Amino acid sequence: MTTQTPATPTAEQPTTPDALETAPLPRNLVRLTAQAEAAGWAVTVTTQPGRCNLLLTAPQQTGETALRCVWKATAQGYRWGGATLTRYGQQAAERITWRAVQDVIAAEAPTAPRRPAAPDLSASVPLADPGEIIHAYTRARALADGVLVAADADSAREAGFRVPVALTSAAWEDCVAWHEGDSDRQVPQDERGRLWDVLTMCRAAIRRSRGREGQVTVDLRRVPRDGHTRQARPAELVCAIGPGDHGEPVITIMQPGED
Fold first, then answer.
1. Burial of 33 (0-12, 13-18, 19+ CB in 10 A)
2. What is the pLDDT of residues 26-41, one digit of tens each?
């Protein structure tokens, strides 16, 4: 694949494999790139201000399959921004989550046992045709896998929530997780109290928005679980409401940039 070098310094700049270890790239990029190369994908990594891009391509006789992955830069580092799958010039799936993208790489790879057939371009096929769904990852499965961590139902109810609440594992590790050894090394705290702080701050942010938005930004302070900090530091979360596995309303608390 040929990559043109832009004339301006703010445009995308190709990153060679040798530079992956030294460039400020997402920590999980190297692992995903290695998986893709092993599966037969052609890999191109580019960076530009505020984001990092991974383009995977699989040429075929009838066209090309491409998977475009994006990480967005935040104050806390790169966050997964989603992926888009294109087959033969037609978009097949978008907003692919980090958990699902690894399955997509395996299923769509040139070395996969069965390749999807080229679409009949003479027919009008809606983009949202159920047959084009690449990966369905349920909330129940995410909870079972540890991708989501359910908030204690009693604590959530006491904080004012009337629907199930869960945190992404990244949000939980950053703002809730706390063990006895952490109290010895830093300050005495416990997970129940830290969870209560997160829930009440989320509830306050929702009240301020008056329920007009599907998601709100939550600003809070918490002691980072780093083994030495004793003072609370600012943190930012996103609280979103959406449909559960059966269409019921559920709330997910996540870090900015998570999907």
1. buried
2. 878 888 888 888 888 8
Phi–psi pair at 209, nearest 5 degrees = -80, -15
- Adjacent-strand bridge partners of 48: 51
Query: Rounded CA gap, 78 and 94, in Å?
Result: 20
Neighbours of 17 (CB within 10 A): 12
CA 72 to chain centre: 10
State both tokens at 57.
């391509």
pTM of the model: 0.51
Single-letter residue type at 119: P
Q: Which two tokens stand for residue 220?
A: 């809070």
> At 219, phi and psi to the nearest 5?
-100, 130
Tokens at 131, concatenated: 């047959």
Longest dimension (CA), the chain: 68
Tell me how far the alpha carbon of residue 167 is from its chain's centroid: 13
CA atoms of 238 and 202, how far apart (whole Å): 8
